[in-house]
Amino acid sequence: MRRVVVTGLGALTPIGNNLHEYWDNLIKGVSGSGMITRFDTTKFKTKFACEVKNYDSANYFDRKEANKLDLYSQFALISTDEAILDSGLDLNTIDKDRVGVIWASGIGGIETFYQAIKAYVLGDGTPRFSPFFIPKMIGDIAAGAISIKYGFRGPNFGTVSACASSTNSIIDAVNYIKLGKADIFVTGGSEASINEPGIGGFNGLQALSTNNEEYQTASRPFDQTRDGFVLGEGAGALIVEELEHARARGARIYAELVGTGLTADAYHLTAPHPEGLGARNVMKLAVEDAGLKPEDIDYINVHGTSTPLGDISETKAILSVFGEHAYKLNVSSTKSMTGHLLGATGATEAIAAIMSVVNDVVPPTINFNVPDPAIDQNLNLTINKAQKRIVNVAISNTFGFGGHNASVVIKKYDN
Fold first, then answer.
1. What is the band of 409 on the pLDDT scale with cuts at 50, 70, 90?
2. Which H or E run contains 388?
């Protein structure tokens, strides 16, 4: 079976507008949470989120191009551009028929949809929809925009599995390469849902933290005082490549993607299985697919959203899969810093896990103060400070509404 490696990375996140800023701030334990600047939150229960900082589309796109792209697609193109540059791909010599794009978004162009419907409802009833309304809104258009910009003619589509979407996109890219359908993929995900329907909708689900007084520390996975997740936005892009193709062009290789897993909870629309059944199964499948044993894993970048139920079920799943080895692992939730990027979270967190494998350091779970008796405190949750250790193998977990579970196993590259 063909081996798959990562040769390029790009990130646009609430704690860094490029890969190196993102990684540096993860290790420093920087919170990306702040009061929402995008709209008037006076009547909203939640008034804070993890926005991308100092973003101006004019720094990346001319006005005409920006008007054709929803913010989620803008984020996608920016992170992809960084990843392609980082990969050292020569766009003039590669076979673009063998380069694909699989890009994820959990919600897609929700801002475009909201603004268009608001204008129609508040208008005189005459439909004056932009010709760009549908193309800007749909969830596959970021993948299309990436392929058009670079001329990549391989497999091209979008994945949607709620908050597991971009891990799903990475897994699909790995499988297509293993099957010989392409040699290279641009894969990852983007999300831009910090707006009235995004915040209002998740408030309606009672999923978001409403801790407006302590907004900077409100994303507090595993802490007994957690009261919901903090919404984030941004994008993460990976260049994944067949190993021999990467070797032939002398590419720098970050890590190898050695195992994947996909499962369903088959339990509830929004709540996780209370015993973490789907999470247990997906980690077990991913480790088996990698040809590894549970004791080979060094670090798990957990889904860890800071919800009362989710954090408990995921730690139960870890204990079920890893047994006594669970206490030798490092576990951390980088959502404590970035917030929850929904469909982009799998990509940005896979990048965090890859960088941990490369640099032998585990980013922390910040904002932890009060232990939860429902969570085994003998687990090493990498509390509040990054920890140095050898990370030969890491897992990145993401779970989505609908009971979607996705895990990817990342291994240090060796010849």
1. very high
2. strand 387-388
In this structure, the answer to whether residues 183 and 242 fall within a common structural domain is yes
Has 20 been annotated as catalytic?
A: no
Last residue within a domain, chosen from 248, 276, 302: 248
| pLDDT band at 1; cut points 50, 70, 90 | confident
Q: Is 404 among the residues known to form the active site?
A: no
Q: At a CB cut-off of 8 Å and minimum separation 6, what does 85 contact? A: 8, 10
Options 245, 273, 340, 404, the catalytic residue: 340
CATH code, domain with 326:
3.40.47.10
At 317-360, the pLDDT tens digits run 999 999 999 999 999 999 999 999 999 999 999 999 999 999 99
Same domain, yes or no: 268 and 405 = yes
- Claim to verify: residue 111 and residue 144 sit in the same structural domain: yes
- Among residues 50, 163, 245, 404, the one annotated as catalytic is 163
pLDDT of residue 268: 95
Structural domain span for residue 90: 4-248
pTM over 0.90: yes
Q: Is 27 helix (H, G, I), strand (E, B) or coil?
A: helix
Same domain assignment for residues 210 and 332: no
Please say whether the beta carbons of 169 and 104 come within 8 A.
yes
**221: amino acid identity, one letter:** P
Instruction: State residue 349 phi and psi, 5-degree precision.
Output: -80, -30
Which member of 50, 245, 273, 303 is catalytic? 303
Q: Indicate whether 254 belongs to any domain.
A: no
Give the residue among 263, 252, 338, 268 at the shortest CA–CA distance from 301.
338
* Share of residues in the chain with pLDDT > 90 (%): 98
For the cut 80, the answer to whether the pLDDT of residue 81 exceeds it is yes
Distance, in Å, from the CA atom of 18 to the CA atom of 20, rounded to the nearest integer, reads 6
Closest by alpha carbon to 344, among 116, 11, 5? Answer: 11
Residue with tokens 């969830």: 139
Average pLDDT, the chain: 97
| Predicted local distance difference test score (pLDDT) of residue 415 | 75
Domain end residue (candidates: 222, 248, 274): 248
Provide mean pLDDT across the span 135-141: 97
For residues 90 and 214, membership in a common domain is answered with yes
The verdict on whether 325 is a catalytic residue reads no
Mean pLDDT score, 31-38: 98
CB of 333 closer than 8 Å to CB of 306: yes
346 located within any domain: yes
- In a shared domain, residues 42 and 78: yes
